[in-house]
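User:
Note these tokens:
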Amino acid sequence: MPRPSHQQLLEHARELVEQEGQWLIVTRRRDGVVGYALPSRSEPGTYHLVTLDPPHCDCTFARLHGLTTRRIGRGGAHELCAHLLALHYISEQQDTSNATEEAL
């Protein structure tokens, strides 16, 4: 499968944001990290585990091109997958909303 362009990643992230109601909140048992299970577009019926702290996604793009400690020193572009882009967007929207509510 060819590597998607940055524009394609952004479009996929927008689609995921629109599907936010389908996201599942999950807690990883081994360390208590809270994350989200986001639906996979390339593998229908599959969800990818996505966390912000630390930033992690188990999708193929993230494993091959993502910003992970396993990829430090490896060649090629390193960027966020669509799942992490979508989660960052939602997180920023919630932070902005919370700040507005606190100001009122």
